Amino acid sequence: QVQLVESGGGLVQAGGSLRLSCAASRGSLSTYALGWFRQAPGKEREFVGAIAWNGINTYYADSVKGRFTTSRDNVKNTAYLQMNSLKPEDTAVYYCAATVGRAAWVGVNRDEYNYWGQGTQVTVSS
Question: Under a CB-based contact definition with an 8 Å cutoff, are residues 50 and 59 in contact?
């Protein structure tokens, strides 16, 4: 079982960058697939990106493809979401999630993840 803690959110101008971190305060992330989701006010939580536990296979939502990159450092027990060219529509609370998965598997649905962080706010001003 893992406990996840996100950090790195904040206020940034459109076109700027932020890097979110997702650290395991308890347990090891090394055999977990990791996903990133976001939820804007009044909207459902949506998939952003995911990375398999092998650290190689990734998948992104069309809305962030080419702008966001997820990576992981299993030695540091941390995953990252690098967000570039941010837009006001990227404003949301961002969550990381984890689930036990096969080496190359990435999940895109909320229901596929068992463990969630508390979320971190990202606000992009125009």
Answer: yes
Query: Are the CB atoms for 15 and 126 separated by under 8 Å?
Result: no
Q: What is the dihedral of CA 44, 28, 68, 113, to 10 degrees?
A: -30
Q: Kindly report the backbone phi and psi dihedral angles of residue 111, in degrees, each rounded to the nearest multiple of 5, phi listed first.
A: -65, -15
R_g over Cα of the chain = 13
Rounded to the nearest angstrom, the gap between the alpha carbon of residue 104 and the centroid of all alpha carbons in its chain is: 17
- List alpha helices for 70-117, DSSP H: none
* pLDDT, tens digit, 9 for 90 and up, residues 81-120: 999 999 999 999 999 999 997 788 899 999 999 999 999 9
CA 11 to chain centre: 17
| Angstrom distance (rounded) from CA 45 to CA 31 | 24
For residue 95, the tally of other CB atoms under 10 A from its CB is 23
Cα 77 to Cα 25: distance, rounded to the nearest angstrom: 9
